[in-house]
Design brief:
The chain is mainly alpha-helical and 177 residues long. It has 6 helices and no strands. It has one domain (3-159). It is 77% helix and 0% strand. Helix 2 (17-41) packs parallel to helix 4, helix 3 runs antiparallel to helix 4 (70-98) and helix 3 packs antiparallel against helix 6 (137-161). The radius of gyration is 19 Å and the shape is globular.
Length: 177
C-alpha cells in the first residue's frame, strides 16, 4: 500500500513510480515457483523455510531503512517481498500438520484473525509513524518486527512440537457435545 509512496521519492517526475513499485513483485513472480518446489522437495524442513522467509522480510525491511540509494533500497524491498510470499507457501503446509482435529481449525482461524487484524492496522501504523517522523524508516522497522517475532515463534513451536502433550480424551473437543 505504501510502496508507491516510498518509491515516488526515487523518481521526482513520478512518471515511473508505478513501474518501479512493480519491480519487487516481478522478482517474486519469477522466483515463487522455484521456492515452492524447494519447499516441497525438503518438506521435512518446512519450519526452516518459514524461519528463513520471515528473517528475509525482517532483514529486507530493516536494511531498506539504512540506505538512501534507490537501487539498493529497491533490492532490499525486493528481498522483503520474496520473504513475504515465500513464507506463505510452507507456512500453511507446516501449520496444518502442527495441530490436529478441532485444534487445527481453531489455530488456522486464530492465524487468519491475527493476519487480518495486522492487515487492517498496518496502514494506520505506517501512516502515523510516517507523519510523526516524516520518514518511512520507523514504520518499516515497526512492520519488520512482526516477521522477526514469527521466526522466533517458529523456533519455539518447533521445539515444543517434539514435547507435545496429548490431552486426555475427556477434554478433547467432540462435535456431539
Amino acid at each position: 500500500m505504501f510502496l508507491p509512496l516510498i518509491v515516488s521519492g526515487f523518481d521526482p517526475s513520478h512518471k515511473f513510480s508505478g513501474v518501479i513499485a512493480a519491480v519487487p513483485y516481478a522478482v517474486v513472480a519469477c522466483l515463487l515457483p522455484f521456492i515452492g518446489r524447494l519447499s516441497d522437495r525438503y518438506s521435512h524442513n518446512r519450519h526452516v523455510h518459514c524461519i528463513i522467509a520471515a528473517l528475509m522480510v525482517f532483514a529486507g525491511l530493516t536494511l531498506a531503512t539504512t540506505t538512501s540509494n534507490p537501487v539498493v533500497m529497491l533490492a532490499f524491498i525486493s528481498i522483503a517481498a520474496i520473504g513475504i510470499y515465500a513464507f506463505a507457501l510452507p507456512f500453511w503446509a507446516y501449520s496444518s500438520g502442527f495441530f490436529s482435529g478441532a485444534y487445527a481449525a481453531v489455530a488456522i482461524a486464530a492465524v487468519n484473525s491475527v493476519g487480518n487484524l495486522s492487515g487492517f492496522l498496518s496502514p494506520y501504523v505506517m501512516g502515523l509513524l510516517k507523519d510523526s517522523t516524516h520518514s518511512f524508516n520507523s514504520a518499516l522497522i515497526c512492520i519488520a518486527l512482526g516477521p522477526l517475532i514469527s521466526a522466533l515463534l517458529f523456533i519455539i513451536f518447533k521445539r515444543a512440537k517434539g514435547q507435545r502433550v496429548k490431552l486426555p480424551v475427556s477434554t478433547q473437543y467432540s462435535p456431539h457435545h
